[in-house]
Design brief:
about 375 residues; alpha/beta; Rossmann fold; 2 domains; six-stranded parallel beta sheet; four-stranded parallel beta sheet; 12 helices; 14 strands; transferase activity; Polysaccharide pyruvyl transferase family protein; transferase
């Protein structure tokens, strides 16, 4: 075991499959390198209330059908159990980081940890390095989420980023914000789910047919709904929605846990999604997929897919039925895998530098 004690600061306790897996993959990737690493287990009653409210009523202001309420509670409890099985530090208050352990190195990221517009984590100073008890501070695959680069950063937030010894981000929008704010040229690296091995618990599930189209997300547009529905009907593919109710799907699997999610996506014929990690896991498993931008996630998808030569998988109401059929039925372009392989090397090299003492980083 390497003597370096590392803490990872991220959104590990969100009730969201992607948040769970990006945290788990980064920690396990560092453990595989021989480091002593744990997730900084921050808690906040205010944020817990907001997170759980959204988990139980994910399509607010719309009402959750009574039949689904128990299923969303079951999903919340399963994800909480999965989170508690991660290597966590002693619990401390998000607003009082003086209660956290001391570390040799803290890695902030991945996820949209710098999103000043996040509905409940936005403008939490700890994610900008304030009050963290560590000798060294770096970021890995950090993002500003839906906070656009042309808004810039207020000087107070830009100044906090000067606390970071090394910075990496996961998208061009975040890179531009960093460049404009502090004049640093950050490395663009891969989301941990694409960088490190994803290792779900074993599941045996015979509830679904051998062929199905996976649906992940909610609040899809009517045009996307109709496009995907028409494609699936032509191929006689049942649509199965995971994690959320979508009434236009043939089946619902609301209460799936994060490990179920990975097996479900890996077994699908194709994926339809409007979530960032819906795209990430489709790319990871080499699955045909179609993605729709939503107001909250548009910058995230625009930052991910074109970067990986997969921009044609972003569809709109003007996308033809022929093009949708093509991207949902054909193997992924080999250039996508080549770009991911290239960025894996870049990401590994960044971590090599970040994990070294500062005097050796440019040696």
């Amino acid at each position: 075991m390497n003597g370096l004690k590392i803490g990872v600061l991220t959104f590990h306790n969100c009730i969201n499959y992607g948040s769970f897996w990006q945290a788990k993959c980064l920690v396990e990737g560092l453990l595989a390198r021989g480091y002593d690493v744990e997730i900084l287990n921050h808690h906040s009653p205010r944020i817990n209330h907001a997170e759980w409210k959204t988990a139980l009523q994910p399509v607010l202001p719309g009402e959750t059908p009574e039949v689904d309420q128990a299923l969303y509670r079951e999903k919340l409890l399963k994800q909480t159990c999965a989170i508690n099985a991660l290597p966590l530090s002693p619990e401390f208050k998000l607003e009082a980081p003086a209660g956290m352990p001391q570390y040799d190195l803290v890695i902030v990221g991945s996820d949209e940890v710098w999103n000043l517009m996040h509905p409940w984590f936005g403008k939490c100073p700890i994610f900008y390095g304030e009050g963290i008890l560590t000798k060294r501070l770096v970021s890995y695959a950090a993002s500003f989420g839906n906070y656009p680069a042309n808004w810039g950063l207020e000087p107070a937030w830009a100044e906090k980023l000067q606390n970071f010894e090394l910075i990496s981000v996961r998208d061009e929008n975040s890179k531009q914000l960093i460049q404009n704010a502090i004049g640093t040229d950050p490395e663009i690296v891969l989301d941990p789910c694409l960088q490190f091995e994803v290792k779900p618990e074993v599941r045996v599930n015979g509830r679904f047919p051998s062929r199905y189209l996976a649906l992940y997300g909610h609040s899809f547009s009517a045009s996307f709904l109709n496009q995907i529905r028409n494609y699936a009907e032509k191929l006689k593919l049942p649509i199965i929605s995971i994690g959320y109710r979508n009434d236009w799907a043939d089946e619902q699997w609301i209460a799936a846990d994060p490990h179920d999610f990975v097996h479900f996506i890996s077994g699908a014929e194709g994926i339809a999604t409007n979530f960032f990690h819906g795209c990430v896991f489709a790319l990871l498993f080499g699955k045909p997929f179609a993605a729709e931008k939503s107001p909250y996630r548009s910058l995230k998808l625009e930052g991910l897919l074109p970067m990986l030569n997969a921009g044609n998988h972003l569809i709109s109401e003007t996308t033809s039925a022929r093009e949708i059929s093509k991207i949902l039925s054909e193997s992924l372009n080999p250039e996508i895998g080549q770009k991911i392989a290239q960025l894996r090397e870049t990401s590994a090299n960044f971590l090599d530098r970040a994990l070294q003492p500062k005097q050796y980083q440019n040696a």
